[in-house]
Amino acid sequence: MAFEGLTERLQNAMGKLRRKGKITEKDLREAMREIRLALLEADVNFGVVKDFVKTVRERALGAEVLDSLTPAQQIVKIVDEELTKVMGKEAVPLNKAPHIPTIIMMVGLQGAGKTTTAGKLAYRLKKQAKARPLFIAADVYRPAAIEQLQTVAQQVDAPVFQLGTDVDPREIVKQGLAQAAEKKNDYVIIDTAGRLQIDEKLMQELADLKAIAQPNEILLTVDAMTGQNAVNVAESFNQQLDITGVVLTKLDGDTRGGAALSIRAVTGKPIKFTGQGEKLSELDVFHPDRMADRILG
Ligand code: GDP
């Protein structure tokens, strides 16, 4: 379960304040120190922690919270609101094209959960919007990648456009899009190549595919369990591709939660979904307010 340690430590800090009744500036300072350490230990980005603590402290001091009848309660409310804000305030829906098809380009490092998430998205779109998605298999560097996409596609009962591993991904995408137009698919989900690390060739290929497909959505999948590394990955993909959203996968296995709390503030791009397991149904819309409530426990 995500945020275990963070929840416990925040609750401790808030519990101390609650027991005090009247809260002095010194008490507040001590609580803020504990919150700061709790966030850092949860692997939240250093700059994000700094800004967060500063804002909470200023709000608590500014609005005569300390002199109020329920200071601890009000501080909890401020922390809740600021946690929500750090994660982006409101859920951001998937972009939709004005005319079909809506084109979604999946990007990410190998193993982050890109192909699984592509399947989860198709599952969701079919279920909720009765969509008729077409997958395009544009990862030509690992033969297993196409097979994996086909397996996922079979599970959700959606077609895959593929030309094997000997054709340039740019050509595959062009032909795939032509097929989608012909068959009137309303969604196209392009599964692009992942690499073990970010490299120039990968980025150039993705930039070319973006230029060709002009996607409505460039969704980056990052693995929550990799913490600040996920944030760094998000930052560099965003710099190079101007992504439209992030899917934070494996949140079910991430006990700290640092990536969830940092990505929006660092990249300016919303987390749109979280992956909470390996099953196709285990994709959730990311709601910052609900996540903040969950973190505060
Ligand atoms: P890709 O290389 O980025 O396409 O990654 P895959 O889709 O192959 O996923 C890598 C591994 O992570 C697979 O074993 C998936 O089942 C697993 N995985 C993907 N998303 C999640 C998730 O949200 N939670 C869990 N627990 N596992 C996931």
TrEMBL record:
<keyword id="KW-0687">Ribonucleoprotein</keyword>
<feature type="binding site">
    <location>
        <begin position="108"/>
        <end position="115"/>
    </location>
    <ligand>
        <name>GTP</name>
    </ligand>
</feature>
<keyword id="KW-0694">RNA-binding</keyword>
<dbReference type="GO" id="GO:0003924">
    <property type="term" value="F:GTPase activity"/>
</dbReference>
<dbReference type="GO" id="GO:0006614">
    <property type="term" value="P:SRP-dependent cotranslational protein targeting to membrane"/>
</dbReference>
<dbReference type="GO" id="GO:0005525">
    <property type="term" value="F:GTP binding"/>
</dbReference>
<feature type="domain" description="Signal recognition particle SRP54 helical bundle">
    <location>
        <begin position="2"/>
        <end position="87"/>
    </location>
</feature>
<feature type="binding site">
    <location>
        <begin position="249"/>
        <end position="252"/>
    </location>
    <ligand>
        <name>GTP</name>
    </ligand>
</feature>
<feature type="domain" description="SRP54-type proteins GTP-binding">
    <location>
        <begin position="101"/>
        <end position="297"/>
    </location>
</feature>
<dbReference type="GO" id="GO:0008312">
    <property type="term" value="F:7S RNA binding"/>
</dbReference>
<keyword id="KW-0378">Hydrolase</keyword>
<keyword id="KW-0547">Nucleotide-binding</keyword>
<feature type="binding site">
    <location>
        <begin position="191"/>
        <end position="195"/>
    </location>
    <ligand>
        <name>GTP</name>
    </ligand>
</feature>
<keyword id="KW-0342">GTP-binding</keyword>
<keyword id="KW-0733">Signal recognition particle</keyword>
<dbReference type="GO" id="GO:0048500">
    <property type="term" value="C:signal recognition particle"/>
</dbReference>
<comment type="similarity">
    <text>Belongs to the GTP-binding SRP family. SRP54 subfamily.</text>
</comment>
<protein>
    <recommendedName>
        <fullName>Signal recognition particle protein</fullName>
        <ecNumber>3.6.5.4</ecNumber>
    </recommendedName>
</protein>
<feature type="domain" description="AAA+ ATPase">
    <location>
        <begin position="100"/>
        <end position="297"/>
    </location>
</feature>
<comment type="subunit">
    <text>Part of the signal recognition particle protein translocation system, which is composed of SRP and FtsY.</text>
</comment>
<keyword id="KW-0963">Cytoplasm</keyword>
<comment type="function">
    <text>Involved in targeting and insertion of nascent membrane proteins into the cytoplasmic membrane. Binds to the hydrophobic signal sequence of the ribosome-nascent chain (RNC) as it emerges from the ribosomes. The SRP-RNC complex is then targeted to the cytoplasmic membrane where it interacts with the SRP receptor FtsY.</text>
</comment>
